[in-house]
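During the first year of the project, the team set up a workflow for recording each protein of interest as an amino acid sequence followed immediately by a discrete structure-token representation. This format lets reviewers and collaborators read both layers of information side by side without switching files. As required by the reporting guidelines, we include two representative entries from the current panel. The first entry is reproduced here exactly as it appears in our internal archive.
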Amino acid sequence: MVPILLVLLLVLILFGAGFAVKLLWWIAVAVLVVWLLGFLLRGTSAAGGRGRWYRW
């Protein structure tokens, strides 16, 4: 009985880790898209040059 429970627990842990990793990949892709859009659509500064769209 204990080995079956250990296998089921391992399956649950691996399934949860796989879901979390997949979710993190989607978040990373979304952040990359936002960064690229901000980089491409940034405005011009008062001096006529291209300004940074972020503050840091």
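The second entry, processed by the same pipeline in the following quarter, appears below.
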Amino acid sequence: MLALSFGVRAIFGGVVEPLSDELFGGSIGVFSLSIAIQNLVWGLAQPSFGMVADKFGDRRALWLGFMCYVLGMMVCALGTTPLVQHFGAGVLVGMGVSGTAFGIVLAVVGRAAPEDKRSYYLGITSAMGSAGQVVMPLMASWLTEWLDWRLMIIVITGALLPIAMCIPFLRVNESPLSSSAEYAPVTQTVRSAFGHPSYLLLNMGFFVCGFHLAFITAHLPNYVQHFCVSSASPDELRALGLQALALAGLANIFGTLLASQLGMLFPKPYVLSAIYVLRALVILIFISQPVTPASVMIFALVMGGLWLSTVPLTSALVLTMFGSRAMGTLFGLVFLSHQLGGFFGVWLGGALFDRYASYDQVWYLSIILGVLSAIAHLLVQERPAPPKGLAYDG
């Protein structure tokens, strides 16, 4: 499920240019806003999907997300106006990813995994989710050689259908936490979590993670097409950008597994801090050199190793602080911060490129945010939060 859900959303960077050329006169800002809305809605909807999963059962949340995802992809493929694209590729796809990706699935795994190995199993799950980012951009790149962008999206939408076959086989929480003794009111949950300084720092750090990942996913193909020093055609360069995203997904499998193992050996906040420092350094080196096909693939390989390595560590810290009962809700709130960062990363990328024909400002902002996030994680305390009315089990 994670492979398909996460993989399908990775194809949008490959359609920014052709969709914008056909519908919006070549301005990428309009569809960049659609993808930014997608990231924002993904985050805004995550706490709600988490509460549905915690209170009414995981399968109901997963089915709702699946239906939104398929409908949103079809609206994107058939839409011709900015408003329709914002609704389809933005709102509906954002809700679809929210209901089928990390927030819900990691909560299922977190409840099932033994406490001493949670970060390991969460790492495996996150890494396998990246398999979709390996396959789907490559498939999209291949399909665009034979089909226009609309038909390509329709075909890719069909890849979501196996999710419907997976949901009935998941061993999920179908015993709703319905009584007041078992499930604290949402206002009490939020108040308790946001009164914990380390939880606030995790939110700040995950904002930066979302900014980095969403900006690169949405704009790397366009960046390569316009700034790569090569004799290849624009279509070939855009395909190279998609292939780079696929390589990042492949590297992420190993990077996430490594990070989850390191999280069992060293304090998780320190591992997270190191990841953000390395991200800032990798970006600085990449933009300081001429952009070539080789440098693009090296950047994708190294950055991919740092891609989703933050997810199992961050989710494990939430479990450590608050236990698994309200995991869906509380990780959903952290993920909201992640997607707020994603919104600004994608939107600023498109808006500044349209104005200055450059991504330099966003690259440098990414470096600054990476350093600030590294500092914030050094202050995170890896220990259970003092109970304030929440139903803890940790």
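For the second entry, the following points were noted during internal review. The radius of gyration is 20 Å. Confidence is low (pLDDT under 50) at residues 176-183, 389-394. Both points are flagged for discussion at the upcoming steering committee meeting.
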